[in-house]
Design goal:
The complex is a heterodimer. Chain A is of the alpha/beta class. Chain A has 3 domains: about 210 residues, NADH-ubiquinone oxidoreductase 51kDa subunit (Rossmann fold); about 100 residues, Ubiquitin-like (UB roll) (Roll); about 100 residues, Up-down Bundle (de novo design (two linked rop proteins)). Helices cover about 40% and strands about 15% of the residues of chain A. In chain A, a hairpin with a 5-residue loop joins strand 8 and strand 9. Chain B has 2 domains: about 60 residues, Orthogonal Bundle (Arc Repressor Mutant, subunit A); about 80 residues, Glutaredoxin, CATH 3.40.30. Chain B has a 4-stranded mixed beta sheet, covered by helices on one side. The two termini of chain B are about 20 Å apart. The interface between A and B is large, with 57 and 42 residues.
């Protein structure tokens, strides 16, 4: 069963606007939180087990507790709405349809962190969503939830939207801060971490859209109630954006106890694969996380059903597992070519590398070129080892995680589908007109017609 | 074209600057460049960037290095209508290659080119966050999603009728 605590009223007509949002119980968490001590809110968020929903999964309360509080220096909360990881479009949905949920979560979070001016850094292409957010912020201000002396508590908070201009790298928090300061999005060397020296050298916390929205149910229902949803260290709900070869692409809020099989085949979620095709592979957490063949996706190496949560998806490490990442769930059916798909991702990372670190700047370009050659039947067998060597030399050798993010998809594709790469090299003519299909599998993976 | 914002737009620039800490007016650079691009012909010529530099009291090079970093700033003239078609993994799985090929053939231009009548420019872009609604393209302020050849035809017709 899907459990909705973020999107439960997303389809209420007019929920985008203040009056309806308020009538449906909106802004209650601000009323409650502003009567609490900021430190108690941080404790509550820690207790909830909420983990950053942008991809890294770092505990939010812990991140908040790192913020420095030097006397007389302003602090800032910045919402990371630079959603750009291929496969990921969940934050867009949340901002477009329930913008007040993000604003509400940000007011509570700003109070907890002591931020009197908070920013939403949104990717430049979400131009129309910028307008939606600015309109919602104006409504919130008009109704006394932003501005001076909110609810008579003496807490002041202003909120602004800062629109980027097309750069995946600005989703990395220090690049985002550089971009907020009006510079190129070149990530900074850490330490110092943003919590100590962030925007304009002031203590700054950067959190993802979904993370900040989740603060609302945590405050309303309490940390214990939130932590009861989910399983283990995967508490609460997760927004998944599902795409690729599925019947029902879209954004789903899931309880992290469901299985991957249920997510793909149940009519409540992806609704199975179109035209009766079979599952070939899947990238379950955004383009950076390892691709898995169908058998390892549905079942862990231990033979257990794989579940849609942080622990289960990463079970087996990178050898037989993958990651929850940002929740960008990309499904490939039997007609898709893993080599070609990996090539488009390599091209993406070459395009998005900021160019600061040589391994990433040069390596992403080399990987793109080699993959293009293999895809077009112009590769050699030694190219596959060369690709492996390049990705290994990028990983861990760059200032920011973009290097790893570029290396992992290539590594996983070779690890699990080396035979398909070899087939391309050995069948240079055939690979242009035919597909390797499911030849990788000794027996096509059994999957039910419906779950 | 005289490079000077209207008084109304100058007020907008000042309002944007006021969102950031005092003395940190450079932070307004990205939003002001967006405003400049839409105000001065859809691209950022050097005199436009120099003008933005003077407004924000930064060196011109600080503007050039930002304008050249971000993919949404056009450093060359573009057509009246810009088609930015996504070609990354999830869009590719849903047929973006065919859509790009169709637009090329229909407008008789290559990727990066502008049609002879100056109306259309075709660009390919990397993931715009619409993977579930693929194939797609950015068209002005919004997205056009679930693209088909028929939809491309009607978008082109729509453009031609508004251009006249």
């Amino acid at each position: 069963m899907s459990r909705k605590i973020l999107l439960h009223n997303a389809t209420v007509p007019g929920i985008r606007f203040y009056d309806v949002y308020r009538r449906e119980g909106g802004y209650r968490s601000v009323e409650k939180a502003l009567k609490m001590q900021p430190a108690d809110i941080v404790e509550e968020v820690k207790k909830s087990g909420l983990r950053g929903r942008g991809g890294a999964g770092f505990p939010t309360g812990l991140k908040w507790s790192f913020i420095a509080k030097p006397e007389g220096v302003p602090r800032h909360l910045v919402c990371n709405a630079d959603e750009s990881e291929p496969g990921t479009f969940k934050d867009r949905y949340l901002m477009e349809f329930i913008p007040h949920l993000l604003i509400e979560g940000m007011i509570v979070s700003s109070y907890a962190l002591g931020s009197n001016v908070s920013y939403i850094y949104i990717r430049g292409e979400y131009d129309w969503i910028t307008d939606i957010l600015e309109e919602a912020i104006a409504e919130a201000r008009k109704n006394g939830w932003l501005g001076k002396n909110i609810l008579g508590t003496g807490f002041d908070c202003e909120m602004y939207v800062h629109r980027g201009a097309g750069a995946y790298i600005c989703g990395e928090e220090t690049a985002l801060i550089e971009s907020l300061e009006g510079k190129r999005g070149n990530p900074r060397i850490k330490p110092p971490f943003p919590a100590i020296k962030g925007a304009w050298d002031r203590p700054t916390v950067v959190n993802n859209v979904e993370t900040l929205a989740a603060i609302v149910p945590i405050i309303n229902e309490g940390a214990d109630a939130y932590a009861k949803i989910g399983i283990g260290k995967s508490t609460g709900t997760k927004l998944m954006s599902a795409c690729g070869n599925i019947n029902k692409p879209g954004v789903y809020e899931i309880d992290m106890t469901i299985s991957v099989e249920e997510f793909i085949y149940s009519d409540e979620y992806c609704g199975g694969i179109p035209n009766g095709k079979r599952l070939k592979a899947c990238i379950p957490g955004g383009s950076s996380v390892p691709i898995l063949p169908a058998n390892l996706l549905l079942t862990t190496a231990k033979g257990e059903k794989r579940l849609m949560n942080y622990e289960s998806l990463s079970d087996g490490g990178f050898t037989t597992g993958t990651m929850m990442g940002s929740g960008g769930f990309i499904v490939l059916d039997e007609d898709q070519c893993v080599v070609k798909h990996t090539y488009t991702l390599a091209r993406f990372y070459r395009h998005e590398s900021c160019g600061q670190c040589s391994p990433c700047r040069e390596g992403t370009g080399w990987m793109e070129k080699i993959l293009k050659n293999i895809e077009e039947g112009k590769g050699q067998l030694s190219d596959i080892d060369l690709l492996w060597d390049i990705q290994r030399k990028i990983e861990g050798n760059t200032i920011c995680p973009l290097g790893d993010a570029a290396a992992w998809p290539v590594a996983a594709a070779i690890r699990h589908f080396r035979d398909e790469f070899e087939w391309h090299v050995l069948n240079p003519e055939k690979c242009r007109t035919e597909n390797y299909g499911l030849a990788h599998y000794a027996d096509p993976v059994y999957v039910p017609a419906a779950v | 074209m005289e490079i000077q914002f209207s008084q109304e737009k100058l007020n907008t620039v000042n309002e944007i600057i006021s969102r950031y800490p005092e003395g940190k007016q450079k932070s307004a650079l990205l939003p002001v460049l967006h405003l400049a691009q839409t105000s001065f012909g859809g691209w950022l010529d050097v005199p436009v960037m120099d003008y933005v530099a003077s407004l924000l009291r930064v060196e011109p090079i600080e503007v050039y290095e930002v304008a050249s970093f971000y993919s949404m700033y056009n450093l060359k003239p573009v057509g009246k209508f810009l088609f930015e078609v996504c070609q990354t993994g999830p869009c590719m799985l849903n047929g973006s290659d065919e859509i790009i090929a169709y637009i090329k053939q229909k407008l008789n231009i290559a990727v990066g080119e502008t049609s002879a009548d100056g109306l259309f420019t075709l660009k390919t872009v990397e993931c715009l966050g619409a993977c579930g609604y693929a194939p797609m393209m950015q068209f002005g302020k919004t997205y056009r999603e679930h693209l088909t050849k028929e939809k491309i035809d009607s978008i082109i017709e729509e453009c031609k009728s508004t251009a006249n």
